[in-house]
Design goal:
The complex is a heterodimer of chains A (224) and B (839). Chain A is of the alpha/beta class and 224 residues long. In chain A, strands 2-3-1-4-5-6 form a six-stranded mixed β-sheet, with helices on both faces. The longest helix of chain A has 17 residues. A two-stranded antiparallel ribbon of chain B has the order 1-2. The chains are: A alpha/beta (224), B mainly alpha (839). Chains A and B meet through helix 1, strand 2 and helix 7 of A and helix 23, helix 29 and helix 35 of B.
Chain lengths: 224, 839
Amino acid sequence: MSFPNPTTSVKLVLLGEAAVGKSSLVLRFVSNEFQENKEPTIGAAFLTQKCTIGSKVIKYEIWDTAGQERFASLAPMYYRNAQAAIVVYDITKPASFIKARHWVKELHEQASKDITIALVGNKYDLVKNDSGEEDDSENSLRKVSIEEGQNLADEEGILFFETSAKDGFNVNEVFIGIGNHIPESNNNSNNPLGGNSNGNNEGRIDLTSNANNINRSGGGECAC
Amino acid sequence: MSSNKNNNLLFPLDNNEEDPIIRHTQPSSSSASSSSFANHITFNGGDNLHQLKTSQILKLIQLKYNNDPIELIKQLSIDVLKKESELIVERQENFLYQQKLIKLCMEFSNLSTLEINKRINDMDHQLSPPSQLNQDSKIVQSLINEALNDKLVSNNNNSHTTSSTKDKQRVSSPAPIQLKSKTTTIHEHDLLPIDSATSSNSMASPMASIQFAPPPSIPLSSSIGSLDYYKPNTNTLMSSPSSSTHWLSKWFNSSEDLSSSILAKKSLKENSLNDDNSTTIVKVPVELESMSSPIIPELSALDTSVSVNIDKYGFFNDLNNITTTTVTATSTPPPQSSQTPPQTESKGFADSLAILIQNKIPLNQTINQLKQISKNHDLTNLQIENEWDELIRDINRDFYKHQQDREEKYHAYNFKRLNYFTTGNRNNDNQSFNNLEIFGLMGLNLLKFDDTNYVKLINLIYKSGILIKYRNLLWFEFSNGKNLCVNGEYQQLINKSHQIMQKSESSEIDDENVEVDDVNAGILNNINQINLDLHRTLPRNYYFNNLIELKPGPNFYKLKRILYSFIIYKPEIGYYQGMNKLVGNLLLLINQPTITTLILKEEDIFWIFIGIIEEILPKYYNSSLKTYQLFYQSFSNIQLDLKIINHVYLKKYIPTLYKLFSKLNIDVEIIIINWWLSLFIDLNFIDLDLWFKIFDILLINNYYEIVTNGEKTIENENDEVNADADDKDINNNQHEFDIPNNLIKFFSITLSILKVLENQLINLDSYELIYKFLSYSTYDITNHLHTDTEGSTNTTNSSNTSAIIDKFKIKYSDLIKHYQYFNKRITKVDILNYRKSLK
């Protein structure tokens, strides 16, 4: 059974650390809902949503994967043949940004060459103050600056967004951006910028030392 | 108690088990009497002389008795006499109590524990105020009559919040001593219906009306609930679901209640049409709702009351009223609660209901037919309940009957063991050792004497799943949790987790530089992950997330302690997402109504969990680590086995699906791995009732399978048992292709699910829909199935959503039929061969 003609299907996979809001992001995109205390995803969930971009209609077939490190070895099952990937991190959790960096790297190495990747810093609502603008004070919950995210995206040649699944900020833009990017993906597929994963500012050095911690403790199981 | 007075059994007490009761009660009564003596003494002439100093005594004698010894002795002897007579009275009373106790003990010693529990329950019921009940039942009866005459009037303006019901409850329940909880429950339920049904006049003074409040609402739900021997739903939050209301339903004719409830709703519906603003407090009983929703979906829309419905597992039903979800579409509350009674009659019930209502048959006729349907429903379920009760009684009887026998053997075993260790005499006694192993209290021992009970047990489980009231008891046995349980160990684990937490908190000023050893780092890592998931476990369940008071429920903390303890108990396994859901579901057992059987504690749940992890879930052999690993840790092995399921068994036994999947290019393995990792929890087509029943099957000891499954030879099973027992001396070649315990069950369950869904899937016939439907999904799939079918196929409106949900739920009877089929045909040898060929 095939889909109506103008629709193109795009297989999209969501990756990222646990509880950064992958499922919430998809839920916001697919049914414009938000649930507090979203139950953790096990394995992966499958969802679809159509998205009209200009003249074309894209049908996203979304694989929303489990975030826990221990299920990471299952991820290739889901990003195999994927045309697009969204790597999500939580802008209030530095460790999740480290993890995002790993995912981007893995995708570049393992996934199909012309995959379109979007880096998404989620939970923007947490760093907003009452007037709806970003809280610049010392108390801000933000731990990953917008520049860090943008830098990583530039290095890897991928798209970058900051979103809030809770209030819907910038969510649809992610999917529209991917949709726009997909036909041009051939040009950008062999971007040489990848691989330079050494941080170049002090914040990142701290973060990488933390990543070592994670690797040490979680390394035992991912051998398979 | 009173019935025991007529019983004049006076046998010497030789039952050890009952002895402690007497020992316990005797000292307490005698101490009571001695204290009363003490009081007497101080007021007597003797003045406690012995307690005073010699000089004081002399002084007293001088003052009171003029140093006259005769006077003194007289006074003393009078005192002594008095005391003696008092003592005699006390002794007589004591003796009487003793006699009563002995009678009780004698009576109970002939009974099983279950029967004793039942007696105690009965006594409880006798103690509850019968007059009130009768009165209530009369009122209910009259209400039902009224309902049958279709004279119901709903009140219009009373808006009821939970707090208002609370207030009323406080006013209405005068809280009789000791029975407080029960009676208040009744009252709560009493309160609900007045508003909806009778009393438009009650609005002015709700409090006054309450005293005369008739209780039809609770029987409405209980009548249907009782069909399955589940306790009726507690419709309000304030009533604790565990407080027993089952006895209420006894004297209600359930069918009448049912019809009246439907009538009530009908009238309500009409009313709400007239007045859109009317908020009605009528609680649609959950079971009824789920059963009838396919036909009268408007009911759910009707249910606009502010108060909250909670189903028997504690899930919030009308979530939209409470949660902060920002829902845009017409999303229906999740179908978590749909009721599958042991004998899955509900489907037929719902269907016939549909026919009845759709055809607009005259009301009286409808009611009569409804009565008939619910009667039949009642009967089949009662029958199953009786079968269960009987079987459990038989098992217990046998157990106690053979107790002496067993004890002798046990002593002999101990003696032999002693011999074995002291003399090193290693003759062939191992055999008899094994036979004497004491497993669970009621389970395996009996097998040594009589197989029939086990055949019955298996057949009954295949027929209906474990009856909900016995599930606590049997799961504790079957999971082997009872044997794994070590007194005090759970507490130690909790303490240890506290220590680690404290240590980490003190040293962990910022996340970066923590110097902890590897093990603790792993544990902390796990704890972090658990903390992320705690709030995300059963967030729609009252016991986990109290949405009314916006605080975590009691099970939230239990879940936390159990998971923390687990990662300390098994640091080499650690926490896997999904365990939270398993423990969450297990914790729901705590809140289940158990009428007669043991009530599980948090600790018991922990050990059941350990039992499931250690012994029920398949373990794969890891040849590089030379050890068995939990299947969570063996993704590659699972993936290999899923290939077998797909390319061998699916192809062979369900070829239509196999063809469909390859035609649509569907990777069924990717779907099934989700099923396995989530242990079949939260799948779109498996509701909680069915999930419990699937685990009933998984938990049945393998040995039972042999009894019922003649085709599997016992030798094979023994080999397997031995292989499991010898984990330590592992022979590489032998174990590389070892088939994990229970793997065949996973195979069979997976295939039978696919088989049951076969027709649905063929109808879906779309890559996308099938993935959506089959893949594990954290949200309600039906919305999306619905929106997708809308455009392409015939017109479906939102009211059909619940019909879709019900259509896709698997029935236990169907599942088990296919399960038995597959379970007989899938053999270890085959799997081994296929594995080798795939490698």
